Amino acid sequence: MNSDIGEKIKKLRTQKNLTLSDLSEKTNLSTGYLSQLERGLTSVAIDTLDNIARALGVTMYYFLDKPKSKKNFILRSFEREVLEIENNRIIQFQLTSDMENNDMLPRIFEILPSSNNEEITPYPHIGEEFIYVLEGVLTLLINDEKYELFPGDSAHYKSTISHNWANNANKIVKILTVHTPNLLKK
């Protein structure tokens, strides 16, 4: 995986006519580290990858492979892949082997703690949502009312009402979600 990311970084850097020194200046990373990364000799942290991506004018998802859609209806725990990482704080994992052909979109979210209470901006969208708290304390905002959900708690609501959720605690929050419609469906 590191060599794939490194190859993509080097290819994009050279396409943009940037030297390792140029990229080093834009990212505040050493040229030695960047060189090792491009050759697949070292690993990269998510926040560092995001820093490099911004310097190269792309998102970090440019460097990550999208999970492969399979036709099998069983997804083993060891097959679970990261679907997306948002703002270096929210990690989404796929929970289905065929995300693009099903009506529901089941996922697990791991939400890292914020340094202070997050401003939660509620928003409506089409569909329906189910949330089940696996670990931590989730702050759920529905129609300007805040609810604290603890492990074992769940919420099920129409997505057309104003809603959002966040981690305002100091420990990781893990939630299982199921959304309809599946926006990844072909």
From TrEMBL:
Pfam families: Cupin_2 (PF07883), HTH_3 (PF01381). PANTHER family: HTH-TYPE TRANSCRIPTIONAL REGULATOR, TRANSCRIPTIONAL REGULATOR. It comes from Clostridium lapidicellarium. SMART domains: HTH_XRE. This is Helix-turn-helix domain-containing protein. Keywords: DNA-binding. InterPro entries: Cro/C1-type_HTH, Cupin_2, Lambda_DNA-bd_dom_sf, RmlC-like_jellyroll, RmlC_Cupin_sf, TransReg_Diox_bact_type. Residues 9-63 form the HTH cro/C1-type domain.
